[in-house]
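Hey,

Quick one before I head out. I ran the complex with copper (II) ion overnight. Inputs first:
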Amino acid sequence: MTHRCAGEETMSIMKHLWMISLALTGTLAVALLVSCASSQGKLGNTKVIRTDDGAVVEVNLKEYEIDMPDSIPAGSVTFKVSNTGNHDHTIRIEGNGIDRKIEPNMKGGETKELQVTLTAGQYKITCPVGPHATLGMRRTLTVTPREAVRPGATSVSQP
Ligand SMILES: [Cu+2]
């Protein structure tokens, strides 16, 4: 770096490295986004409490995930929905002739209940606020026939 040409070359290399680091930062951000998206549905911190005629299901909403069980028993289902995020969220359940949601949208920190009678089958669960569903707030809920109670689950007295 004793003469001018070498100095200029160093500057050019520095600039080049800066560009590379910018590109890497971008790649890392994309990788993080992808890993967030792929972790959707693997969160399982919520509970299903079986009742005599169905279940109480805990649901947590945040940016941009719906944390709830993948499978619940048929019957009278009460979703206990908490918005643990900062944005407004809500929950909509669709399928087998059902289309219900909690209205108005829930503010951060709010908890509300939605009671729906569900028959066995697949249901689509989404947060219909803005683009939240496409950002990750969507999942499929499987409702199992009441006979198919897994051993180990809280026992239920059948009528
Ligand atoms: Cu939402």
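The helical segments are 4-38.

Talk tomorrow,
K.
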